[in-house]
Design a protein that fits this description.
Blueprint lengths: L9 E3 H11 L4 E4 L6 H9 L3 E4 L3 H15 L3 E5 L3 H16 L3 E7 L2 H5 L10 H5 L5 E4 L6 H13 L5 E7 H5 L1 E3 H7 L14 H13 L3 E5 L1 H6 L2 H11 L3 E3 L19 H7 L2 E5 L20 E6 L13 E4 L2 H11 L9 H23 L7 H13 L5 E5 L2 H9 L8 E3 L9 H12 L3 E6 H7 L3 H6 L4 E7 L29 H5 L4 E5 L2 H14 L3 E6 L25
Parallel strand pairs: 2-3, 2-4, 4-5, 5-7, 6-7, 9-10, 9-11, 11-12, 12-13, 14-15, 14-16, 16-17, 17-19, 18-19
Antiparallel strand pairs: 1-8
Helix pairs in contact: 1-2, 1-7, 3-4, 3-18, 10-14, 12-14, 16-17, 16-22
The protein binds adenosine-5'-diphosphate, ligand TPW and magnesium ion.
């Protein structure tokens, strides 16, 4: 072989990473290019993977995470070493917190230099930095381990409770050469990455017994139920038992919000009065008052369906834990469910109906009030009507008032179409989620963004324009975080901490990239703009002027603000 004529064909780390992703059906990479992964992005594109290049790694990571949520395959985010890696980490941590399957692959610098802290280019101990924020963190140290490393990352991301996996790829490994035969043999196709996890039969009968004894049962659907894609069985269980249900925000649309058994419009009454609660892929975290009084009755019995055994009894006692994947658990419940044995009391259903009607009337009045300047409700009423006629549209939503009010006003009719701030209430996911949803589905996306929320990922409108994605960004411009009318309490002329530029012409930003900008100060022009923008299937941005005084501090969760012990509240 010394003469080169009989040299065996060779491959390298770059090729093996691409081969390993393709072998496992991962077809899209969301990233930001640079040393040492630029050629990985190029090679991926040349090999038929789709590469979506972002302006910031957080957005690339958020796109990957939501792609994972929508497709049940891990979304792949590619970052450069140290700063790029860290920028992506927020999204990886957010994916883990929300249970979205994602893999962040990051190039890293020379281990020998990094470990002795000798000052390499973009030096950082990335593997250890990632550990607390990821479901798992792995490093591949040899090219012949790329196959098994990628396989391990895939299985870890999607099995059990899904989450974010960090995969460290030192530059040296990417550039290392091995024989093509050794390389090919080292690749691993993951078989059944997220196997069914069947619930124990006795847990099913126990769960049904709790519900049979109840007078005032309630079902809570969470985003774990949406993720499970067991839509038909979940609907069948809800309808056959007649139990009223409440969707958590990203579970909206799993059953339509206008379903007669949906009690979202009587939420606090339903939580407080239920005597038996079945949680389906929803955690008893802060979003559900930790399952405690005063939001909940202290004597309510809980049934919980979750894939994660340690979720049981995490906040309060669970009378009937059902550990398994939701599709299997739901199928088992349906198979065991006797006819007519679960019967919600008629007084319970009647009272819920009454309260729903009163609240619906109150909401209708707010939606038609039409104040000048426009408030959140009248802007959302206009959007709601347009979205009703475009049910294929994804809805991305972030902000405080913009989030809370939109969640209540805009009904969803299809599952997994509402993508929002999730478990952390994080700002900055908007454009990444919008891009991830548009890329994976090819469907139009409307992103309803608070003006502050938009700012965290706003530069990605260039990405949206560059890839010509059908994303319409609607900015609720009330000139600030929560409100735009706060005053500086000090002596200088600086704006108050929550204030942003009220007169900002956000629509001009997208025009810089060839997208279509609109300005809307009333519901009619908002409606016209949205209809036109959606029909065009091209990038657009609508800057909505919202009354700076219309919002409330922290939206619907102002109670979580600690009060200053020294100064009286304004
Ligand atoms: P929400 O915020 O909508 O209430 P959470 O994110 O708090 O939802 O809870 C989702 C739960 O669903 C998590 O505890 C997670 O373990 C669980 N989960 C996710 N996927 C599945 C699945 N396929 N089967 C069962 N449980 C699941
Ligand atoms: C990563 C804190 C919560 S809500 C919000 C911030 C900054 C913005 C609210 O203003 P917006 O909405 O978007 O204009 P509106 O309609 O009420 O005016 N940094 C991160 N995440 C969070 N949650 C914050 C800060 C916050
Ligand atoms: Mg605002």
């Amino acid at each position: 072989m010394a003469d080169g004529t009989n040299a065996p064909p060779m491959t390298d780390g770059f090729h093996l990473v691409v081969d390993a992703l393709q072998l496992n059906g991962l077809d899209t990479i969301y990233g930001v290019a640079g040393i040492p992964i630029t050629d990985l992005a190029r090679l991926a594109q040349a090999s038929g993977l789709r590469y979506i290049g972002f302006r910031h790694e957080s957005s690339a990571g958020n796109a990957a995470a939501i792609a994972g949520y929508l497709t049940r395959k891990p979304g792949v985010c590619l970052t450069v070493s140290a700063p790029g890696f860290l920028n992506g980490m927020v999204a990886l941590a957010n994916a883990t917190t929300n249970g979205f399957p994602m893999i962040q692959i990051s190039g890293s610098s020379d281990r020998a230099i990094v470990d002795l802290q000798q000052g390499d280019y973009e030096e950082l101990d990335q593997l250890n930095a990632a550990k607390p924020y990821a479901k798992a963190a792995y490093r591949i140290n040899r090219p012949e381990d790329i196959g098994i490393g990628v396989a391990r990352a895939i299985r870890t991301a999607v099995s059990g409770r899904p989450g974010g996996v960090y995969l460290d790829l030192p530059a040296e490994v990417l550039g290392a050469v091995v024989s093509a035969e050794v390389g090919a043999r080292s690749l691993v196709r993951v078989v059944d990455a997220a196997p069914r996890q069947l619930p124990a039969p006795e847990t099913i009968t126990r769960a049904l017994e709790v519900l049979e004894k109840a007078e005032r049962p309630l079902i809570i659907l969470g985003k774990g139920a949406a993720y499970a894609q067991a839509d038909d069985d979940i609907r069948a269980f809800v309808e056959r038992t007649g139990i009223p249900f409440l969707p958590m925000s990203m579970a909206k649309g799993l059953l339509p919000d206008d379903h007669p058994q949906c009690v979202a419009a009587a939420r606090s009454y339903a939580l407080a009065q239920a005597d038996a609660v079945m949680l389906v892929g929803a955690r008893l975290n802060w979003l559900l008052g930790h399952g405690k009084s005063p939001q909940w009755s202290p004597t309510a019995q809980f049934v919980q369906l979750d894939i994660q055994p340690t979720e049981m009894d995490s906040n309060r006692a669970i009378a009937a834990p059902v550990v398994g994947d939701i599709a299997s658990s739901m199928a088992a419940l349906l198979a065991t469910l006797g006819k007519g044995r679960i019967r919600p009391g008629s007084a319970w259903l009647g009272e819920l109906e009454k309260r729903k009607a009163v609240n619906a009337q109150r909401m209708a009045a707010r939606l038609t009030a039409n104040p000048v300047p426009m408030d959140f409700h009248s802007a959302l009423a206009a959007i709601k009507d347009v979205l009703c006629k475009n049910p294929e549209t994804y809805l991305v939503n972030e902000g405080a008032n913009t989030l809370d009010i939109a969640r209540n006003v805009i009904g969803m009719r299809a599952p997994r179409k509402r993508l929002d701030c999730g478990t952390w209430g994080v700002m900055g996911v908007g454009m990444g989620y919008a891009i991830g949803a548009a890329v994976t589905s090819g469907q139009p996306v409307v992103a309803i963004e608070g003006d502050s929320a938009f700012g965290f990922s706003g530069m990605e409108i260039e990405t949206i324009c560059r890839y010509q994605l059908p994303v319409v960004t609607v900015i609720f411009n009330n000139g600030g975080i929560y409100r735009g009318d706060d005053a500086n309490r000090g002596a200088d002329a600086d704006p108050a901490p929550t204030v942003l530029m009220k007169e900002a012409r956000y629509e001009k930003l997208i025009e810089a990239f060839g997208g279509k900008g609109y300005y809307a100060a009333d519901p009619q022009s908002l409606s016209r703009a949205l209809v036109e923008a959606l029909a065009s299937r091209r990038p657009a941005l609508i800057n909505c002027a919202i009354d700076p005084a219309a919002g409330t501090e922290s939206g619907h969760i102002g109670n979580l603000n600690p009060q200053s012990a020294l100064a009286p509240r304004k």
